Amino acid sequence: MVQTRIATDKDLPQILDIYNDAILNTTAVYDYEPHTLDMRRQWFETKQQQGFPVFVAEENNEVLGFSSIGPFRAWAGYKYSVENSIYVKDGQRGKGIGKLLMQPLIDAAKEMKLHTIIAGIDADNKLSIDFHKQFGFEEAGHLKQIGWKFDRWLDLVFMQLLIK
């Protein structure tokens, strides 16, 4: 049975594998080069220092996905706005793992008295857009040809959930 819990340092190698697969094989991350374990460790430590949670979905000691929230933009006036990230391991997508990872993010944002969660999604990723809609996210903007990956221009859709 898949369990959702707060991530620990021990999860970082598996989190890194999931993230690097997204970099190399999808447009979920507009990056080109795989990250190192040190980079992922620094990312995790920054999340902890800023008080933002990282969750994992796990079954039989295997991390099947992870999620987090973090600053939307660096300026003080954005302190009540966060951006979410959810990544599910290749071969595990479409099994409800993303749903298990989203609700804890929303609950954490409410507990932190945040006002809005923003998702930046590649415009061609209809599955992610529809997934976010299931949780009440609405399209808030569409930026054309903002990213370049896999020898083509990519559009970015911003979706937003106002926390009540």
UniProtKB/TrEMBL annotation:
Q: Which Pfam families match?
A: Acetyltransf_1 (PF00583)
Q: What SUPFAM superfamilies does the database record attribute to this sequence? A: Acyl-CoA N-acyltransferases (Nat)
Q: Which UniProt keywords apply?
A: Acyltransferase, Transferase
Among InterPro entries, the record links this protein to: Acyl_CoA_acyltransferase (IPR016181), GNAT_dom (IPR000182)
Enumerate the spans annotated as N-acetyltransferase domain: 2-164
CDD domains attached to this UniProt entry: NAT_SF
Give GO MF terms, alphabetically. Answer: acyltransferase activity, transferring groups other than amino-acyl groups
* The protein's name in its UniProt record: N-acetyltransferase
Biological source species: Panacibacter ginsenosidivorans
